Amino acid sequence: MNELHPLTQAIIAGKRKEVPDLVAQCLAAGESASAIVEHRLVPGMAIIGEKFKLNEIFVPEMLIAARAMKEALKVLEPLLAAAGVKPEHIVVIGTVEGDLHDIGKNLVAMMWKGANLGVIDLGVNVPPARFVEAIREHQPELVGLSTLLTTTMPAMRDTVKAIRDAGLSVKIVVGGAPITREFAREIGADSYAPDAGSAVDMAVALLQGKA
Amino acid sequence: MNPAGSLKVRLPTGEVFALPIHPDERSLAGMLSAAGLSLNTRCGQRGLCRGCEVELIEGSLTVDGATVAAPAIVKACQARRDGHGTIRIPARSRVEHRPQVGETFAIGIPYAHQPLFTPVPGGRDTGFAVDIGTTTVVVLCVDLVTGAILSRAGGFNEQIRFGDNVITRIEAAAKPENLAAMQRAIVHETIRPLLLQAAERAGRALERFAGGAVAGNTTMLHLLVGEDPTSLGSAPFTPRFLSGRQVLAGELQLIVDGLSPEIPLQLLPGIAGYIGADIAAGVIATGMAYDEVPSLLVDIGTNGEILLQSNGQLSACATAAGPAFEGGGLRCGTRAVEGAVSELRLGLNPFGLELKTVGDVPAGRAGGICGSAYLDFLAMGRSSGLLSSKGRFEPAAWEQVPEPYRHQEDRERALRLPAGRPGGLTISEVDVALLLQAKAAIGAGIETLLETAGIRAADLGRVYLAGGFGMHLNLGHAIACGLLPGLRREQIRVVGNTALAGALLALVDRTTLEEMATLQARVEIIELNLVPGFEDCFIEHLSLP
């Protein structure tokens, strides 16, 4: 831990209130926004993901860390946009139609941002057509579908079908409390992420597999 | 019937009995249920939870098409007969036949004597009030002439085998045969026997019953009348009906010897898909609709419902707490059934741990831990310094816990309660993480609803804590751990089963029914997931104060 930058440490410990100052210090020291993301935030979220996998931290601590990173991105995202920095990989994510729950989806979105992916978040209650439209518009390599309610699992199936029927070659990863590997396979998704930690590994593996 | 093979069940008493084999090759859970040994099939027999695990102690079973040989732990909903086998059912997997049913309540308003059904002296002079909870159902037998409660009867909602929460039931109802089977489960298998029991206890012949009033959440009332609840399963959660329908006993197939099929059952009116007639009943029964000070109604369950009144303005939200407070998903979690650890006292310096169980069963025979004791653990674990604000065991404090109370598996640490079912009872850090999410959902729901209305917790004149869980929790601990954030004990009134209270009120004073019916237009529904600050508020509440 000693060798980690204070900003990275603050992200890991979820010390949200300390984050804006630490980001400001990095910027004042001449680090670019993209360098801060790459060298300060990404390692922090990688450690969070690793600790989660090893059962060293659980969902509450992961959420708290993700929120700390969100504070950093609040400062950095406008700078990245202004500098015209384009992420190497674009991914789209959303909660399927009929479901308004987004805490799990937002956590995955944050973890993906923490892996330096460009995340287009469509929000909650997203109809299949809206996913198709967003995929056409943003040309992502990967799309993530989330649901919390067992009753909206059919909407996930419909969304996968709509994406396939539209002839889009994007990889689809699905997750959420009621989703199982079998269900993911059955509806024709490319991958199933049982939790936010594995959603990152999954995304990185799928993207690299494509590269 | 295929004669090959037999299944035996070893009961906790040591007795072994042969399980009748069904020719239709249903699951082990199905066969056990048919034999009167219902298991906790809370995920709706989809193999997703561990509620129905049984121990295969001899012989074999088929699971997922493969033979599993003893000794093994199997999910009964996924297991089928495979030759001979003997199983043992751990207490935690049984749906107990003595549930703690919320039969008591406080009524906070004066009411007139204007019965919903005009009593005929010497004729139909008796009514019944029903609360259909997702888990438990209560029937009251009421003298319509005097308004007196004559008797009570309560038990599990037999729909529980289709899933233990409204979402799993809505999903099950997608199959028309299940919709009919669930209606039969509530009418014929639940209400009918309870009505018979209540009538017998009251000494009233069924011929004397003039009608009943029924409270329940929107999904339960849909399933009662056989309406498809599918639309309640996804946004915008539009119910097929909310109004206070009247249906005849005969239409519901509520067929009891002596009971006229022509008598009406009055359903209480609901407010919205997830703010149902049970909450409308509570708003009227507590009197909160008439409070001159701001007041709050909180009903803590898998779906927590929160309703705020301020200057006569009403707003409400539902918050997804999940099943943790009912023991769901927790290693040793259970509902508040007999033999569950219900209270816990913890001290660190010097170390001390005291337990109390439902029904004062000796702690050595405790079958699990229920929500109120977990809440005690959160509050006292934190105040003693054993738990960090993030719900982890503080390393230095952990060292002060005597060795026999410490349990470690892989990297996961747990406090071992020196008692209970074989192997002992534990509360692990993973359990704590789930409890923190449940308490944060309620705490953040309360805070967000108050913020939306511009009310501070300190400004609330009264907080009505409704529901079974509210009756059994330690208020000081609920406040300390942030379940009821920013509140003081003296603000809180524990009001019990206000859904049942509302059904009784409607039965004895029909004007209260009219007032319940006005609520749908008066209550503003706040969809928490669409409030921008809710997620931050939720994450804030994940910590222990």
Commentary on this structure:
The complex is a heterodimer of chains A (211) and B (545). By secondary structure, chain A is an alpha/beta fold. Chain A has two domains: 6-82, Methyltransferase, Methionine Synthase (B12-binding Domains), Chain A, domain 1; 90-210, Cobalamin-binding domain (Rossmann fold, 3-Layer(aba) Sandwich). Chain A is 57% helix and 11% strand. Chain A is built from nine helices and five strands, in the order ααααβαβαβαβαβα. Chain A starts with 5 loop residues before the first helix and ends with a helix. Chain B is an alpha/beta fold and 545 residues long. Chain B folds into four domains: 7-93, Beta-grasp domain (Ubiquitin-like (UB roll)), CATH 3.10.20; 126-279, 2-Layer Sandwich (Nucleotidyltransferase, domain 5); 287-323 and 446-540, Nucleotidyltransferase, domain 5, CATH 3.30.420.40; 324-434, no CATH class. Chain B has 13 helices and 24 strands. Chain B has helices at 28-34, 166-172, 176-202, 218-225, 277-286, 371-383, 395-400, 429-453, 468-472, 475-480, 498-508, 510-522, 534-540, and strands at 7-10, 16-19, 53-63, 66-69, 72-75, 79-88, 126-132, 136-143, 149-156, 209-216, 246-248, 264-267, 295-299, 303-310, 313-320, 340-348, 351-357, 368-369, 406-409, 412-417, 425-428, 462-466, 492-496, 523-525. In chain B, strands 1, 2, 3, 4, 5 and 6 form a six-stranded mixed β-sheet that branches. In chain B, strands 9-8-7-10-12-11 form a six-stranded mixed β-sheet. A six-stranded mixed β-sheet of chain B has the order 23-22-13-14-15-24, sandwiched between helices. In chain B, helix 8 (429-453) crosses helix 13 and helix 11 (498-508) packs across helix 12 (510-522). Chain B is globular and about 65 Å long. The chains are: A alpha/beta (211), B alpha/beta (545).
